Batch of 3 targets.
Target 1
Amino acid sequence: RLSPPPPLTGRDQQRIMAGARLHALTLAALAGLAGLSIVRTSPGLRSGLERPSMGAQTRGRVARPVRCRGWFDNLVTSISTMGSKKVLVFRSAGAMIPKKQSQLKGGEDAFFMSRLGGDAGVGDTSFLVQYSADGMNKDKGKQGKVVARLEAATVLGVADGVGSWSQYKIDPGLYSKNLMKNTALAALEISKKRAAQGSAMELLSLGHSQTKLKGSTTTTVACLAGNTLSAATIGDTALVLLRNGKIFYRSPTQEFEFDTPFQLADTKMSDGYGVFCEPEEALEFSVRDIRPGDVLVMASDGLFDNVHEYEIEQIVQDKIKNGEGADAIAQELLERARIHSLDPEFVSPWAQEKSQTESGFIGGTLKKLGGGYKGGKPDDISVVTGIAQYLIPGTDLFLPI
């Protein structure tokens, strides 16, 4: 057995510090000319991160970004990260607002963002945040909004509970919220047992197996491992990926017919209520070569039914140009979708698809007149966004994009 090295003396420590200062002076000019920038968390926040319980109405304490452009900060980061392993994560945010009819019960949508250990690249710092609309203002006639932020997310999910369950006196939001909670917990448990955090399909299957309730939902779950994003989706929730402000990937959706998406459910609990899917029927896909600066937008159909792709691109471009982060993108997308959903004259993606799929006398008349349906689709809206960036494991240091 090797004996431990002798402790450093005060003189040894002084010698090491002097060498570091000399190194700093040597590289200072180069660092200043390079004009590098870093993003770091405020001192003290990292040790204060909390993992709120599922369904907690508090937001938890999440590391807030502080942009530092001084040459000394850049130099310190350059020196401290030389030769360090780096991992790709999403600096993420989520926003949610329910439609008026579902507001009193806290909405029908749910989402989560998780920061995991192991291959997720955050050392032994692991915590999970899950939000629903339960904590918002429930006064009649007012709409509340939930906004959540999470640094270094690697697993994310969105679910949209099916509103028609209300006719059976079943809260449509219970299944979606519990599915997201259980999927997030599955990701956390896997990361404790092994280095790999699991695929999106594996996490969705585990979350589904623990959700023993009547109800159904559409959902998308995504995992980032290395530079590969894997995802599993059922129904019409979806994700898009943007690079340099342009969409380069949009996930497929599953529908029986217009406005009738596939739905995930516990088929035994919900037997006799309709046709439902098991996780094995989900569409599974992956996108390789995710790069720093790529933007993820994952959302319920409340976004994609009311906001065109060119609008998503414009919002992302504007926010990135202004130096704003994932939370600003999520909130702007949410607000744009809300406005369009209530506008009877707006030609929304939902209205366009309805016009295209109309058949019979109505469809023939629309084609002859060269017109179509107008208006948005009022709905619960959930948006999760993330900006890919390299993180130094075990620290709160992010490399410049």
Target 2
Amino acid sequence: FFFFMDYQQRVSYFHDLDVGNFYYGEGHPMKPHRLSLTHNLVMSYGLDKHMKVYRPHRATEEELMLFHTEDYVDFIKRVSHEDISAFSNELRRFNVGEERDCPVFEGLLEYCQIYSGGSLDGAMQLVHNQCDIAVNWSGGLHHARSDEASGFCYVNDIVLAIVEMLRYFPRVLYIDIDIHHGDGVQDAFYTTNRVLTVSFHKYGDGFFPGTGDVCEIGAANGKYHSINVPLRDGIDDEGYLELFRPIIRATIEKYRPQAVVLQCGADSLNCDRLGRFNLSLHGHAECVKFVKSFELPTLVLGGGGYTIRNVARCWTNETAVILEQDISNNLPVNDYYRYFGPFYQLHPTVSHAIQNTNTKQYIEVVYERAMEVLRGLECAPSVEMFQIPPDLLMRDTDWNDQRDPDSRFSQHDLDVMVEAKGEFFDSDHGDTADFSREKL
């Protein structure tokens, strides 16, 4: 007798406790603190019991330069508020500064290293078959270019992860459900057939970044490898999924990718501070569930999202969807419980204050334009696979030499202050454990 059991996909989840401590500045809509809310809610629901939880390594400068220019990475490393006038030319050159949407703030390089490290570690686990789905909610910063910041994004962790995956997988599919067009990722792979990008986003009315029209289909070897689904204000679950499911199914069936990267920007949710869509948590999560159903190695990332209590709700719910766990609509008591008042529920009420201007006819036209691009796509294009180079060495950074002795110890500082196994003398900083690149 043979007993068949449903295969449970192995999930790795990456989070650094320090990532929520960074601050873009007063009044800035991007708040890394949303990641602390998300992680705390994930843990409070007990979802950590169903996956492996890791603190990722911090991406080295060499790793950042797998996509970004050396001058740009060096600038991110050196720039500071203390002597910001000395960087006036470079601020303009790299699109950084208080008058732009990418300000200078304390710990900028460290912040980039943390969220990029999570995406790189997720990619590495996928290519080495250590998990089936890797999750890094701190990642997904899809606007950054190789030599400039853009749209609250400084380092494009998505491109870095895909570059790593391409050393092992012939074809990678990138899917973006952020309300903003995934322009930085599209541009990075615009002329190659080894990455196909699909972006569902608001387009028109001067909405940032102003790209993502249906006519942007790729160039040279990458022609027909960029699919854009431009949407109008107020699209709801029904209209969104009416486009998402058939387009993604047709794309996967024809392109036959070996891996998927899914950017789950939560600013496409109803009532987002910067958004204009009417998606519910359920509709947003249905996209994740649908991609998961193809059982391809998948890297799941965060992205935009500016009503932070709803960002935490969204990504916690999608963590549960990935794990195939049913969780209560009544939120568990957690460290940030007061943020979710007055109803303290996982699924907020959907408002229809924004009129849905996506007519049935418009949705049909957008769908047909996407299918036109797919008809021009070569079925599962063959690629010449070069010898895989040795894995990039993960250098141990001497954080003691870099940190300010007058500042408090970060979580990373505490992690590296460990005793060797078998030694029983007291530590100057209490009992700590080294979780760098290890399971929490």
Target 3
Amino acid sequence: MTAAYNDNSAAQNAGGKKTADIVAKCARIICKMNPEKSTFTIAEHGCATGVNSLAQIQSFVNTTQGVAKQITVIMNDKAENQWDVLQDTIQQNFDVEINDGLLHFVMVPASMYTGGALFPAGTVDVTFTNYALNWLSKVPTVFEGMYIHDLASKCEDQLKWHLQQHEDLSNFLTNRSVEIAIGGFLILGIQARNHRTGFAGWQGLSTMGEVKQLMIADGCPLLDCVDPEYNRSIVETLACVDTSVWHIVSVEEEWIECPFHSKFERGDISLSKCARQSKELYKACTSWLIADASEKNGAVYAQGVVDLFYDRLEKVMAADPTGLKASTAHPYHYVVLQRAKLTE
């Protein structure tokens, strides 16, 4: 994610709020199971620049107040993450706790899929992730549009993406099973797809596919630019869970409204402002895709292609009188797993 993500991730923040409540529930169980415990470790995979990690960390701090003497917080994301922005975000919000020695932050740049176990075995009490597992480790196939969920559900591309998501999530769960202590918790916040209807939401990604085709027609080198996100159904998620390793504690699905489109529908903001705010969110999350594709295909000035792409995206969004082409609304899954004691 770019440094602008902190200021342009309202949709992700909305989906992640409930995770903070789940973190608190898991912390209470950990304390009850281990009444003498005073040092804890929590971890997040896909921390980005940190703004959507604050509520979960604060929730753990609040729940263990008076019990915890030290809490180690491990934050993992890809090496390309804006680690300096993350560091500033954490320091600004937890300065007192850090200086008092209560919180100790560790940053781990590595792939959560292919990096293996990233932390010492059996040391983590609660691990959580929000809006990270939708990003696959690689793009399985390239197609005309931008968003895999715009394609027919049983086409060859969909099958290959389905296999890739299964491999990635299976690897992720295997790695976390090493790190998390017996009885510890893994909270999966997953950008999802409705299993019954197949609806994946995030209409703005479909709109980005429209803009991609417009720019290709104008000669911009974006043929192989594809968003590497896959929104799992709950069936696909649970198919990766080894129940000899994990207890499935709970499974929930919620519909996350678009914060911009909702305001537009209520008359609180204009259509143009809805389009502009939505464009900034999509740009903060995906501008690197456009830049990479431009550079790979020989663009002399990749940033110029990026700026043009998102200018056109905003115009296409603003031209839709319903505002739906700007929407971020989507299903979201909360799956809580507890590390089981392996049977002999």
